[in-house]
Amino acid sequence: MFASENKFQKIIRTILDILNVLLGVGVVVLAVMAFINTDNNKWLFPIIFMMGGVMNLFTGIKAMMTDRKVTGIISVVAAAVLAVISIMSYIAIGGR
């Protein structure tokens, strides 16, 4: 039973790593697009912040699955802060 649970956690951690890499590439691409033409692409900033928050959330979940509980909690708090920044930037650029 323990071996299958450990294998399941390893699969989950691998999936989280892959998602983190994909989100990281997405953040870089969107950031380059946003900074090339800021006036027309300012709507990308809330998306970039939210993607960063999701990346931190995935990192926090992965850390909490291991013995690094404090690191996981800090990452989840950072994810919440980035989510708030995302909402604030959406409102600042003229969102509802």
Describe the structure.
- Helices cover 84% and strands 0% of the residues.
- With 96 residues, it is mostly helical.
- It has one domain (2-92).
- The longest helix has 35 residues, at 2-36.
- The radius of gyration is 16 Å and the shape is elongated.
- The relative contact order is 0.12.
SSE blueprint:
Layout: H1 2-36, H2 44-65, H3 69-92
Helix pairs in contact: 1-2, 2-3
Descriptive tags:
elongated; 3 helices; 0% strand; mainly alpha; 96 residues
What is the overall silhouette? Answer: elongated
Structural class: mainly alpha
% residues in beta strands? under 5%
Q: Look at the structure and give the mean pLDDT.
A: 90
| N-to-C CA distance | 50 Å
**Low confidence ranges:** none
Could you give a quick summary of the protein structure above?
Helices cover 84% and strands 0% of the residues. The chain is mainly α and 96 residues long. The N and C termini lie far apart (50 Å).
